[in-house]
Amino acid sequence: MSREQQIGEKPTGLMGTLAGGLMNLIHKKEYSIIIEAIQSRSELPVSTILDIGCGGGAVVKEFSRQFSNAQVIGVDHSAEMVRLSQKTNKSGIKTGRVKIQQNGVEKIEIESNTVDIITAFDTINFWPDYDLAFGEIKRVLSTGGRFIIVNGYPPVGSRWYEFVKFKDEHEYRSFLAQHGFEVSYLEVKNHTIIIESKKKVL
Mean pLDDT for each 10-residue chunk of the chain (202 residues)? Predict the structure, then answer.
């Protein structure tokens, strides 16, 4: 794993904080467009949104801007990222519409069946235990709620291609199916894959 990838896995110290701030700037426009599209595909009312691995807080801030009636929660296992995300979302936290929590994806401190949209923006490669993670996602996701993965989709042969866990859309579909989710929307654009899925009805 490269130095950049190590920082991405668990941002710590000054370098982690600087990296989080840089990612906020780099991805701000891209994330805004993606979240606008997520909103356009929202058929049911959205009251609660959870961003897993919220990093510097840019995704949380954009969700709170575009989904103006929803509560937005960001969780991250890095104390530095929690502090940065709290700073980024200072106004939303002040009004009570935004919450930032220090949690790992394997244990999310949110009540069951209460979240309408769960997102993972460029974090799924770093999850240490997918079975535990998906158990928590399914637990907190409401009936009809959506789990959305946004992740790098690098070209074959690039160094990032070797790093990503899932190499093509078929691997993503298979992975989600194995964990009880069915893909409802998939798009690959500008070396980024966006996948929306829902819990399978048993």
Answer: 44 48 65 95 95 94 96 94 94 97 94 97 92 96 96 90 92 96 95 94 70
Task: CATH number of the domain at 170, please.
Answer: 3.40.50.150
Compute the distance between CA of residue 199 and CA of residue 176 in angstroms, rounded to an integer.
9
As a whole number of angstroms, the distance between CA 17 and CA 83 comes to: 9
Cα 41 to Cα 26, 49, 97, 196, distances in angstroms: 25, 15, 22, 10
Are the beta carbons of 105 and 53 closer than 8 angstroms?
yes
Full domain range(s) for residue 187: 3-199
Contacts 24+ apart (CB under 8 A), 163-169: 163/1, 163/2, 163/5, 163/125, 164/125, 165/124, 165/125, 169/193, 169/195
Q: From edge to edge, which strands make up the β-sheet containing 98-102?
A: 98-102, 71-76, 48-52, 115-121, 141-152, 192-199, 181-189
